[in-house]
Write a structure and sequence with these properties.
mainly alpha; Protein-S-isoprenylcysteine O-methyltransferase; 4 helices
Length: 153
């Protein structure tokens, strides 16, 4: 089922769609840059290795948690691409008129949960880095004041 009388609108690129796709690609590249900068220090668990050093270069020069910022940017830009673009792709393709619309709502809820979780995880990481690197961390935190968004937050 599709609520529009014509599916032609699904193949039109709107400004929102282009902004969303561009932001998704940019965020993916930033996230890959973060992983490359961290190297073997990247893990999915908040941990400190015996040979751990405080990473303060590349994207970590601008904000303390650029990987989280780029991850959230990816999620929100995907939302722009599919929920806002061109009159709402998900409505036009018809999924919101099917029993599967709950999957879209679950995805939206998971994005919000992820945003809250990453904010909390950043606080845990900051505490661990302060405990591990003490003065070095304090100096870094004073130099890089923003956790997620330069000049804002």
């Amino acid at each position: 089922p599709h609520p529009t009388s014509s599916l032609e609108t699904l193949n039109q690129l709107s400004g929102y769609f282009l902004v969303g796709i561009t932001a998704t690609i940019l965020a993916s590249l930033i996230r890959a840059w973060c992983y490359a900068t961290l190297g073997h220090l990247f893990t999915y668990n908040v941990t400190v290795f015996p040979d751990h050093s405080l990473v303060t270069s590349s994207p970590y020069t601008y904000v303390r948690h650029p990987s989280y910022t780029s991850g959230l940017l990816m999620l929100f830009s995907i939302a722009i691409t599919y929920l806002i673009s061109g009159g709402n792709y998900l409505t036009k393709c018809g999924i919101m008129a099917t029993p599967f619309k709950w999957l879209v709502w679950c995805w939206i809820a998971s994005v919000l949960f992820t945003a809250i979780s990453l904010k909390n995880r950043a606080k845990v990481e900051d505490r661990l880095m302060k405990k591990t690197f003490s003065t070095e961390w304090i100096v870094y935190r004073e130099q890089v004041r923003y956790a997620f968004i330069l000049y804002i937050f």
